[in-house]
Specification:
The protein is about 25% helix and about 30% strand. By secondary structure, the chain is α/β, with parallel strands linked by helices. The protein folds into two domains: about 80 residues, D-Maltodextrin-Binding Protein, domain 2 (3-Layer(aba) Sandwich); about 100 residues, Periplasmic binding protein-like II (D-Maltodextrin-Binding Protein, domain 2, 3-Layer(aba) Sandwich), CATH 3.40.190.10.
Length: about 190
């Protein structure tokens, strides 16, 4: 049974690997065909990037954390609060839903945010942090084990995202999608 799965670009490597391991366990009869992006019979993606007509099976939730380049002065702070971040250079992703949530976290102070750079994806924002262009609020899985990025949680309200399987209702008619969906629900 062939199964074409799309994998969103803004997911951490360890998450993708765990998911693929589970997908391979769903049925020995499944022949996985993995593609990058929004394609396939189903796809692994953050809930906010699912299409309007897609169903969503949540698999895990992860926190957004502050990504700082190594040697950043804020690394000396034991606990970071939004007040510490008013004057830092932010890397934003204006086309990503997390950008609006970042602005909401800053509340009234969002008009004074210092945007140092813009990225087209969360993965690119992480690379910009590693290059020292600024700080960003990013999903923790994108940053784990990155040698040039330090992560810090923020005190107070925090952001999370749900990651899961996106699929059209008619995709459940495909035997491989049925097998994967049933396996993931039972796990």
């Amino acid at each position: 049974m062939p199964l074409e799965l799309g994998i969103d670009d803004d997911l951490g490597e360890s998450q993708i690997e765990r998911f693929l391991s589970k997908a391979a366990q769903a049925s020995r009869a499944i022949l996985l065909n993995i593609q990058a992006g929004c394609c396939g019979d189903a796809r692994l993606a953050a809930e906010e990037s699912r299409c309007e007509d897609e169903l969503f099976l949540p698999l895990w939730e992860e926190a957004f954390v502050l990504a700082l380049p190594g040697g950043h002065p804020l690394l000396a702070e034991p606990l970071l609060e939004m007040a510490h971040l008013a004057q830092v250079g932010w890397i934003s992703c204006p086309t990503h839903s997390s950008h609006q949530r970042l602005l909401a976290l800053h509340g009234e102070n969002s008009l004074g945010l210092n945007f140092a750079a813009q990225a087209g994806s969360l993965t690119l924002a992480a690379r910009m942090v590693a290059a020292g262009l600024g700080v960003a609020l990013l999903p923790e899985s994108l940053l784990v084990d990155h040698p040039r990025i330090c992560i810090r949680p923020l005190s107070g309200p925090y952001l999370t995202r749900r990651v899961g399987l996106c699929y059209a209702a008619q995709a459940l008619e495909i035997p491989a999608v049925q097998a994967l969906h049933a396996f993931l629900q039972s796990d």
